Amino acid sequence: MEFLDVDAKAKKEKYGLECNETGVCLLDVKSKITPHSARVSVVSQFITFLPAEMIGTYITGQTPATVHHYVKLDPEFLEIEQVHQSMVLRERAYRNELEAFATAPRVPDRFIRADDVNSHLAKSLRSNLDETLTSYGCISIVLNEGSTNGLDVLRETRAAYAVENKTEICPYANHCPPEVVKMWRGPHRCGLCQYAVRSVDHLPAVAAKANQFDEILFALTEKIVAAMNSDDPRYSDAELDRLEEERLRIGEELAGWKVSEEVLDATRCRIAAGEETRRWVVQAPEIILQDLQRVAVPSNATAYLLQRLQECIVYPTLESPQMRAKFDLLRRSLLARTGRLDEAFSFAAPVSPAEECAGLLRSMVEANTLTYDDLVNLLERDQHLQNFAPTHLLPESGVGNGEK
Q1: pLDDT, tens digit, for every residue of 163-175?
Q2: What Cα–Cα distance (Å) separates residue 184 from each residue in 167, 174, 194, 249?
Q3: Are strands 163-164 and 169-170 parallel, antiparallel or unpaired?
């Protein structure tokens, strides 16, 4: 009997006639809620804020493809989301942020986001874990032979807790095991961790990470050498010892990233040469499809700065403090070259010097049809500094007090 049924009274009288002599009526309850509709309701609710992999693993016990089959989003929810997006875009337009958003630096083709949910690596891992670990040249750096590594943990847990980062896959959801923290004297030392799993598609980000630690190590070494050569000691012996410990820690981390970079590049070369003939689960690694090769570190300081500019735009977390300062200096230099001196000498610090540099450089290249060599030569010249007229830095005495 339906709720608010107009024939409810007649149906009740008819049903009462079917009761037995004891006055007990057997109920035949029927529900419109089926197991299928229940799964649709649960999945459709959670899919708005959880990935299909997590829903399938922890809630429904299904594959991601099956989870997506049960998704039936409410049209009203979609309309609300569209309205919300329109409001955000309108607000950005009012705050003059839409132009900066539209002209954001493009991701160079030679960089790969292996942590993207739609990357070839991620799709292949979801489809066939074991084949992907082999065909994508996945590695774990192990110092002690016979020790458990990240590949073993991924196969054992079926990547249930794996997190895909820019430079590695962590099988422990980015929570370092106690033995790793104890061995390397601190957490998140991924360059040395035996459980970090890296594929050939991680190579561009691994190279950028190595550059980041190289810059930090160089700056710290210069700081220690200057302190030791100074006639007037600026650091106590205890402070120098701490700086030396920090330099040792960074050197260890840099060595780990360099080893991973060399091993991954050797693996990439074997795959590109056809020495690895295993089939691809979904698609070949992006680094192979795009025929990407490791870029040698330029000896020219300006060329290196431009290379790191691209890396830091694609991988913002791999920007070192030293590079951030150089990007800000380059940004101010570019503003001065274009006559925008007020902005060049402003005390305001930009949120992202790398992105502002990239926007200014792109405008210069497109406006003047510059080649890469032209751009490097232009940045190395300082003709814009020769045009500055002498300026009195000190204010004239008595200004504002009526005195001459």
Answers
A1: 999 999 999 999 9
A2: 19, 15, 11, 9
A3: antiparallel
